[in-house]
Amino acid sequence: MTRATAEQQARINLAAALRSASRMGLGEGICNHFSVEVPGRPGHFLINPQGLHWSEVTPADLVTVDAQGRKVAGRHEVEPTAFFIHGAAHRSKPDAKCVLHTHMPFATALTVVHGGRVEPASQVALKFFGRIAYDENYNGLALDAAEGERIVAGLHNADVLFLANHGVIVTGPAIDLAFDDLYYLERACTLQVLGMGTGKPLRLVPEAIARATAAQMADPTQARLHFMALQRLLDRDEPGWSRLK
Predict the structure, then answer these.
(1) Which residue of 49, 101, 155, 168 sits 20 to 30 Å from the alpha carbon of 30, by its own alpha carbon?
(2) Are 109 and 103 within 8 A, CB to CB?
(3) Confidence at residue 152, expressed as pLDDT on a 0 to 100 scale
C-alpha cells in the first residue's frame, strides 16, 4: 500500500469512527476529538475539525496537524483544546497511534462521583482489567501545553484514562482497536451505573478470574470485524460518508 493510499484509508477509518460514535450517542454537540497518526508520517496526525458535528464529517474534512499542534493541511480549523490534549497524548505515548477523547455519558458519570472506578462487575468490564488510569484533579479547560501534558501523564502505563469531572481518553495502536475499546468501555460503564442505581452491591469478579478473562479478550480479531461491520452500516445508511474530496 502506498503512503497516499494508506493515508486515504486512515481518513476513511477516522471518519467511520466519528460517524459511528455519533450514531451510538457517544458524542457531545460539536465537542470532543478523535485523532490518528498519518501512516508513514510520524509526528503528524489527522483530527476532526472545529464546528462540524461528528455525524457530518467526511474523510475530506479531516485536518492534518503536527505533534506541536500546528495545522499542516486542511480546509477547516481545529478546536484549541484538541491540540493540547491530543498532541500531548501522541507525544507521551508513541505507540498510541489513535487517541479518542469523549464525554460519553455513562463513562463520564463515573468521573463525577467520588471514587468512581470501572469495577470488575460485568464480563465486558473485564476487557479493561489492569488497563485504566485515573486523573483525580480537574483543572479547567486544556488551553495550554502544560495542562495537556498534566492530563495525559496517566497514560504512560494505561490504555484508558478517566479525567475527573470531565470525560475519558481511549488510546490504541489502530483506529479499529481503539474504537472497539471505546464502545465496550461505555457498555461496561452503562451496566455498572445501572447496577449501582438499584442500590444493591455490585457482584465483583475475583481478581484471578478477571485477569484471566482479560487475557482471553486480548485477541484483536473481534474488534476488527466489529469495525468492518460498522463501516458496512454506514455504506448502507449514509451514502457519501466516505468521500475523499
Answers:
(1) 155
(2) no
(3) 86
